[in-house]
Amino acid sequence: MKFTSTLQLERLEDTSRDGRGTWRLLAALGYDSDLIGHVDVPQGFVTDLASVPRLPVAFFLAGGLAHAAAVVHDWLYTTHQTDRATADAVFREAAQACGVSPWRAWVMWLGVRAGGASSWGADGPAQPPGVSIQIQQEGLLP
C-alpha cells in the first residue's frame, strides 16, 4: 500500500453542504491498495476531504489528518467502484500509508463506518464536466 503520486490541491471558493469547503485536485492522485489494486483519482476531482465532526475530542483524534486518504475515499464513494465496507477499509489502509498510526486509522475508520452511510448514497461536491464525463465513460455510475 502506497501513494504513487503526491497530493496537490487548491481550495475552491464554494463550500460543501456543511460549510467545510471543497478542494480540487491539481494533478491526478494514484494509490496502490493491497485491498483493491490501483486507484487513480483524476485531475480536477472535487473533494470535501474528511468529514470529521467538529467536536473537540473527535477532531483531536481524527481531524486534519490523511488528506490523500480522504481523497481516495471520496473518489470511491463518488464512483462506487467497490462496496461501502471495502471503500471504508481502503480509507483505513490509505490513512496508514499517509503515516497515521494504526490505532488512529482505526478511530478514523470507525468514524466513517458509523457516519458514512448517508454520504454513500448522497451526491458529493459537484464535479467539473471532464471528471463527470470520465466517471460516466468508465461505467462507474449507473
Walk me through this protein's architecture:
- This protein is of the alpha+beta class and about 140 residues long.
- It has one domain.
- The chain is built from 6 helices and 6 strands.
- The chain has helices spanning about 55-60, 65-80, 85-95, 100-115, 115-120, 130-135; strands at about 1-5, 10, 25, 30-35, 35-40, 45.
- A 3-stranded antiparallel sheet has the order 1-4-5, with helices on one face.
- A hairpin with a 3-residue loop joins strand 4 and strand 5.
- Helix 2 (about 65-80) packs antiparallel against helix 3 (about 85-95) and helix 3 runs antiparallel to helix 4.
- The chain starts with a strand and ends in a 5-residue tail after the last helix.
Summarize the structure.
This protein is of the alpha+beta class. It contains six helices and six strands; from the N terminus they run E-E-E-E-E-E-H-H-H-H-H-H. Helix content is 43%, strand content 14%.
- Count the E strands: 6
Shape: globular
The largest sheet has its strands arranged as 1-4-5
Structural class: alpha+beta
How much helicity do the residues have?
40-55%
- Helix count? 6
Strand content: 5-15%
For the sheet with most strands, the description reads: 3 strands, antiparallel
Radius of gyration: 14 Å
Q: Would you identify the regions where 5 or more consecutive residues have pLDDT less than 50?
A: 52-62
**pLDDT averaged residue by residue:** 81
Helix and strand run: EEEEEEHHHHHH
Give the tally of structural domains.
Answer: 1
Distance between the termini: 29 Å
